[in-house]
Description:
The chain is mainly alpha-helical. The protein is built from 1 helix and no strands. It is rod-shaped, with a radius of gyration of 38 Å.
Amino acid sequence: MDAAHGPQDYRGDDRIRREQAKVQEVVGIMRENVSRVLERETRLAEIDTRAGRVTSKSRQFEAVSTRVRRNFWQNMKMWGILAMVGDE
């Protein structure tokens, strides 16, 4: 062996390779995490859109049900008046 590359150098190279492998593993995990975050954000945006539609539909339902309730009581008043007039 020449003096420039002794047994110590080879152990150092092996250690560097192990550390690089660890770094590559961490990079892979980070990429996977970023991908999951992006997917999650897409799903949250879809849920937000659906929630907006549900809110809109619930407001429409509330308006229609209020109108139906008013019409119901208006009809009840008319039937009451007709019943009283019919008794005379």
